[in-house]
From TrEMBL:
The gene is cdgB. Keywords: Coiled coil, Nucleotidyltransferase, Transferase. One of its GO terms (molecular function) is diguanylate cyclase activity. The keyword Cell cycle does not apply. Residues 458-588 form the GGDEF domain. Residues 281-333 form the PAC domain. Residues 384-434 are annotated as: Disordered. Residues 210-269 form the PAS domain. Pfam families: GAF, GGDEF, PAS. It is an enzyme of class 2 (transferase). This is Diguanylate cyclase CdgB.
């Protein structure tokens, strides 16, 4: 069973997967690409053995690369299995998306067919999802397009954790196989184009034949291709685009010749484009479609000469990576959000809080970080005044530096801006169209005064919430009811805060609210409102249950660490809980 409840494990796996996928495009030849595919399974997907079987022109599959065992590599590399035997394997067992899993209880019939095999004997599984040495897991690689032409099959063996891969591992292997198919197709395409370019440079007589070969590779490439001018007044202007690029951007070739990539790129990605070198540069950015939308693409540049001494042109390979970006965003969201409630998890909470803090403390004379005790629902005089300046209400503003859109259940400031993680630091060879880009600056945060008189200071309040009576609900009615209570509490907390605030689940029955731009009284009122929202009965399967809540209010301030901020609020929460120890709330 995968430990998918541990976000740091999934983040580490995601980083490894991102690295091995990036490595696929660094290989110079098809053979290097195939070996990189096999090595990536062992290095990034936690399998001990990996084999890449490539479809030959006659349809049979040859073992083209092996990783994990030099003995096995020497034994089966270069051996061929018939297409009929492979088709049989890919129709047996269980289907996991595009993957095919054949357990040892069914795979014994394949022991004597002509597909090259390597396995070791081992004991029978001790539990249901334990990996058996005769288990088989295949990841087919299909070419892009609707035809789903089979390019090859990745076979893997011996997961390092000794268990069948769960949904996380299955999705990672499936996405890796998809990216491997693209890398193999691109390697073949690059190989064909390099041979055409060599012929163009070496023999003037073969110029027309080479041009035709290049034209076909260019025009009929499954991904976008473009040729642009280099140097002069028209530097960067598109001279020629293939049909795939025209379809991708929804613009005819005649219209495309009016533009350069600088005219089509998303405004936020212009810096990435300008930093991408002309020779061998790569970048991932967004290009504009005719309908006004943008599509994520991967650009790969190379410089070609028209003749031996003729002008040079920029050849750009444009690959549609919208689907991969979407998958990466989904994986990143799963790693940073709680699976039960959908709220940001502990790691994401600490990340957001850390982004607001710096090591430099506030200047002398400013208020120090102060923790305020929580308030009971009936212990605060007067109603909540949402019209108060800086108050916590629908019209309340946000302090500078705190990004609106960090909603409790989602993070629009991070999800929609995920492109920044993929920017490359190489130049594109185009001159900047305007001045320097935006620069980052830090707005220091301070805490309100700890005195009885509100000095009007607004700060970043950290409300630590612990549910009262939740354990008895779990013990009495079971975890199903407990989970339903946590989901409903998360919903009520989400409803009770502004769009720019963060509601996170720290773990168990503990939640944390980050609310910026509040004074001491505002934070106290907010704690009262949230507690009153939690107290009403929660109906689960026709039964009404109740939980209470203890709140501790702390304040984040530059010069403090994340743990110091959270511990401060946590301590104030326990002070409040002890002060109300005589108050008992009975679940049910």
């Amino acid at each position: 069973m995968e430990t998918e409840s541990e976000p740091y494990v999934r983040l580490s796996t995601l980083r490894q997967l991102h690295q091995v996928v990036a490595d696929l495009n660094t290989a110079r030849s098809l053979a290097d690409t195939l070996q990189t595919v096999a090595d990536g399974v062992v290095a990034g997907l936690n399998y001990e053995l990996a084999c890449v079987n490539l479809v030959r022109p006659d349809g049979d599959l040859v073992v083209a690369a092996f990783a994990g065992s030099t003995a096995a590599e020497a034994l089966i590399t270069g051996r061929v299995g018939s297409r009929a035997s492979w088709d049989r394997r890919l129709s047996m067992g269980s289907t996991w998306g595009d993957l095919r899993f054949i357990p040892h209880t069914e795979g014994w019939v394949l022991m004597d067919d002509d597909v090259p095999q390597w396995h070791t004997d081992g004991p029978a599984p001790r539990f249901e999802d334990e990996w058996h040495p005769h288990d088989r897991l295949y990841a087919p690689m299909y070419a892009s397009g609707s035809g789903r032409e089979l390019l090859g099959v990745i076979s893997v063996d011996r997961p390092r954790n000794g268990r069948h891969p769960g949904p996380w591992g299955q999705e990672a292997l499936q996405m890796y196989a998809s990216q491997s198919a693209i890398a193999i197709s691109n390697a073949r395409l690059r190989s064909n184009m390099q041979r055409a370019l060599v012929r163009l440079e070496r023999e003037q007589q073969a110029l027309r034949a080479s041009e035709e070969s290049f034209r076909q590779a260019f025009e009929y490439a499954p991904s976008g291709m473009a040729i642009a001018e280099m140097g002069g007044d028209q530097h960067g202007r598109l001279l020629r685009t293939n049909d795939a690029l025209c379809r991708l951007l929804g613009r005819p070739a005649s219209v495309m010749r009016r533009y350069s990539f600088a005219d089509l790129v998303h405004p936020e990605d212009i810096g990435t484009l300008l930093r991408t070198s002309a020779e061998g540069g790569r970048a991932e950015l967004r290009l504009g479609r005719r309908d006004g939308t943008y599509v994520w693409v991967s650009l790969r540049n190379s410089v070609v000469a028209d003749t031996a001494d003729g002008p040079r042109f920029l050849l750009t390979h444009v690959e549609d990576i919208e689907e991969r970006k979407r998958h990466e965003l989904q994986l990143a969201h799963r790693a940073s959000h709680d699976a039960l409630t959908g709220l940001p998890n502990s790691a994401e909470l600490r990340s957001r809080l850390s982004a607001r803090l710096c090591e430099r403390p506030a200047q002398a004379g400013t208020a120090t970080a102060t923790a305020y005790a929580g308030y009971e629902s009936g212990g605060h005089d007067g109603g909540y005044d949402s019209a108060r300046d800086g108050g916590y209400g629908p019209g309340a503003g946000y302090e500078s530096g705190y990004e609106p859109g960090h909603g409790p259940g989602h993070d629009s400031g991070r999800d929609s801006g995920y492109e920044s993680s993929y920017e490359h630091e190489h130049g594109f060879g185009f001159e900047p169209a305007n001045g320097a880009g935006p620069y980052d600056h830090h707005v220091h945060i301070v805490a309100p005064s700890s005195g009885e008189v509100d000095d009007g200071t607004k700060g970043l309040a950290v409300l630590f919430c612990d549910l009262d009576g939740f354990k008895s609900i779990n013990d009495r009615f079971g975890h199903h009811t407990g989970d339903a209570v946590l989901i409903e509490v998360a919903r009520r907390l989400t409803t009770g805060v502004r769009d720019g605030d963060t509601v996170a689940r720290l773990g168990g029955d503990e939640f944390v609210v980050l609310a910026d731009g509040l004074g001491a009284a505002d934070a106290a009122d907010l704690a009262v409102r949230l507690r009153n929202a939690i107290i009403p009965p929660i109906r689960v399967d026709g039964r009404a249950v109740r939980v209470g809540a203890s709140f501790g209010i702390g304040w984040a301030e530059c010069g403090m660490t994340v743990e110091e901020v959270l511990n401060s609020a946590d301590q104030r929460m326990y002070i409040e809980k002890r002060s109300r120890a005589k108050v008992h709330r009975r679940a049910g």
